[in-house]
Amino acid sequence: MSDDTQNLSRRDVMRLGATGVAAASVSNVPAMADEKAAPNKLPKRRYGRTGMEISWLIGASDWPKEIVPRAVAAGVNYWHKAQVWRAGTLPPVLKAQPRESYYLECVVDRVNGDHMHGRIDEEQHYQFVKKRVAEAGVGYYDVFKFHFGYHSVEEAKQNPGMVRAFERLKKEGLVKHLAISQHHYNSIGGDMAWEIMDYLADHQPYEATQFFYTFGDRKEVAEWIDVAKKKDIGTIAMKTMGGVGRASHDPKFRKLLADPNYQGSAPAAAMVKWLKSNPSLTAAVIATRNFDQFRENMGAATTLAMGPQDHEALTLLAGYNKGLTCVLCAQCVSACPEHIGISDIFRYERYARDYHDIERARKEYAALTRNGTSCVGCGDCLSTCSQEIDIAAKLKEVHRLLA
Ligand code: SF4
Ligand code: SF4
Fold this sequence. Notes:
Blueprint: H1 3-25, E1 44-46, E2 53-55, E3 57-60, H2 67-74, E4 78-80, H3 92-95, E5 103-108, H4 122-136, E6 141-146, H5 153-158, H6 161-171, E7 175-181, H7 193-203, E8 208-212, H8 219-230, E9 234-238, H9 244-249, H10 251-257, H11 267-276, E10 283-285, H12 291-302, H13 308-321, H14 342-353, H15 358-366, H16 391-402
Parallel strand pairs: 3-4, 3-10, 4-5, 5-6, 6-7, 7-8, 8-9, 9-10
Antiparallel strand pairs: 1-2
Helix pairs in contact: 4-6, 7-8, 11-12, 11-13, 14-15, 14-16
Bound molecules: iron/sulfur cluster (2 copies).
One iron/sulfur cluster binds next to helix 14.
């Protein structure tokens, strides 16, 4: 979110927060008795078969470095994409602690190409992690996470390179647990994330998973979270803030939200509370660009229960998102005869519009072999979109934004 959005968020919290909190306390919705939560401290949940107790909000290496000490003080004990830190850039607040008091995750990408076109290569993945451990001086990574995941169940069956690299590293004490960050690959004839994760849970040594999940998402994602809990597979939700950034920035939405019906709820905090109200979900990773966002997310995650006004605010947001914001469900992708990665393109649009990271959005968009200009306007995708997005028109608009 931009500074403007955050000023709004801060003002809104100041103007509306007291009534919102009061409303929550009189709403007959009991404050959740958070598992293992000290007052004002983040709760921790078991990260599936890893057995690790990780903070409900996890941190990420791309958070501003000034936030890291505050996050550690608030109870964040798991750091996503920690492989980007070297010995000189590992946050001092982590260096100062015993190594076993925090968890570092190393994400491992395909080689010789991106997540669509790159390949799995046991030796290169092994060497990559080994090198990063040495450069960071951290001794080991707690989690080896296959970034972007398999294209299909079939690929997972046929190509054991990632698992073998993990097993070699584990034997040497350089990694401890195996996890996956899984995308949908129906645009290239592959499988949906939950199909692949379900297979891995039953047939391979994966212990935890990460995937897209936001309010209004497809029911299969929520079902996967419950299945994963039963199978003791950890779950981290990502890309959770569907439409929050643009809605908070839009004067029309802000005006609607000022209605007493919403009693001070703000969409970002409501989203955090909604996610956390799912006891089967281990944790969430939320893009955080400044202190205001951090405070808002942390406040919602530590002290506030989901109230009726939050449901109202999320329903308002869902209405606002209709026709506008892609929830990355990938339902449309298999309907497209041009094999356009529609949900990838709209994910980049979300980087630009919701996270205000236009640079990253343009970089990712530029790497596509088929972009918005490949759309022939046939309309085959239209009926598949639960968000009622005019996909062909939006592809043109996004191309203008990101090309
Ligand atoms: S309208 Fe465009 S995006 Fe939709 S199915 Fe046709 S070619 Fe694909
Ligand atoms: S455009 Fe619609 S159907 Fe396609 S991924 Fe987005 S929300 Fe799903």
